[in-house]
Amino acid sequence: MLRKNWWKILSIIFLFYTLTAGFLGRVPVKPILNETIRNLYFHVAMWFVMMIFFIVSVIYSIKYLRHNLPVDDMYAVEYARTGIVFGVLGLLTGSVWAKYTWGDFWSNDPKQLGAAIALLIYLAYFVLRNSLTDLDKSARISAVYNVFAFAMLFPTIWIIPRLVESLHPGGMGNPALNTKDIDSRMRVIFYFGAIPGWALLGTWITTLRIRLQIFSLNHERHV
Amino acid sequence: MSGMYRFFLRLFFSVAGIGMAGWLQAQDSLQSEKPQMADGMRASGKIYVVVAVLLMILTGIFIYLIRLDRKISRLEKNNK
Questions:
Q1: Site from A6, A11, A19 to mutate, B interface, most B CB atoms within 10 angstroms
Q2: d(Cα A40, Cα A189) in Å, to the nearest integer?
Q3: For residues A67 and A51, what is the distance between their CA atoms, to the nearest angstrom?
Q4: What confidence tens digit (pLDDT) does each residue in A102-129 have?
Q5: Which residue of chain A is at minimal alpha-carbon distance from B49?
Q6: Nearest chain B Cα distance for residue A34, angstroms
Q7: Would you state the pLDDT for residue A219?
Q8: Which residue of B has its CA nearest to A9?
């Protein structure tokens, strides 16, 4: 049992560490941001984890297109679904953070708009899938769409917000997680606590969904 | 998995225990009429209280997930 589930324990340890060190650890003192800089471990982590899940999803979609195994399509769908959940949480947490630092829940910041567009593109993936009744066709077409949706992530959340003026750090061609914004104490908690912790938690939830899907598929076949 | 489950149940109660200890300490300081504002769970603007609450929520979510995981495992085993 432990051999198969060690990473779930790891996720629990990472998240306990993130919550404890994230609130009690020392952070750089900055005007406007104040203690909200700790949102790095929660809000920014949501977007990183979303990106990880969309990468996993597109890998399974390409795998499906190459080998036509329905299980690959199932993995692609469930990872995209978890990715969207993390993306929506990122959007909601971001607007709360924005309210108390930038002054408004939504200020049409290029990164806000880009992230919203990216999420809408991924929501369309589910609309497309569910509108096709033929299962094979639905899996194939949505796998192709997933590749395009993934390609659209780069201009919407990586490139355009970087080029134009933005309230987010990382506008006008500057790096986002630079040494002026966060220091090494925060970096350790972020990269060795928050990112792996949230990513593994999301993977755990996704694998539960996949197992349930596979189970119900097998069960239907038996009945 | 049940060993893990028991471990987290124990962890949950120890976190709750720390919270209780802090609360009792606060009660003590009230009775002695000497307001010790920066003691234990009341230190640093009471941020430890928030940490304790969030750790409890996280523990609850993990217990829920572990139980769900075991339930699905059982389904998979019984319907092989």
A1: A19
A2: 10
A3: 24
A4: 989 999 999 999 999 999 999 999 999 9
A5: A23
A6: 15
A7: 82
A8: B4
What pTM, to 2 d.p., does this model score? 0.82
At residue A171 the predicted structure's pLDDT band, cuts being 50, 70 and 90, is confident
Tokens of A116: 């919203």
Residue recorded with tokens 């990216």? A118
CA B68 – CA B64 distance, rounded (Å): 6
Per residue in A58-89, is it b (16+ CB within 10 Å) or e — as a string? bbbbbbbbeeeeeebbbbbbbbbbbbbbbbeb
Judged by CB atoms closer than 8 Å, whether chains meet at A16 and B69 is answered as no
Does the ipTM exceed 0.95? no
Q: Closest approach of chain B CAs to the CA of A134, in angstroms?
A: 28
Q: What is the pLDDT of residues A13-48, one digit of tens each?
A: 999 999 999 999 888 888 888 888 999 999 999 999
* Measured distance CA(B53)–CA(A35) in Å, rounded: 18
Contacting A with CB below 8 Å, chain B residues are: 1, 4, 8, 44, 47-48, 50-51, 54-55, 58, 62, 65-66, 68-69, 72, 75-76, 79
Q: How far is it, in rounded angstroms, from Cα B39 to Cα B53?
A: 18
| Number of residues that this document lists for chain A | 223
Residues A185-210: tens digit of each pLDDT = 899 999 999 999 999 999 999 999 99
- Number of Cβ within 10 Å of residue A203's Cβ equals 19
> What's the pLDDT at B34?
58
Low-confidence ranges of chain B (pLDDT < 70): 1-9, 11-39, 80
| Residues in chain A within 8 Å Cβ distance of B69 | 5, 8, 204, 208
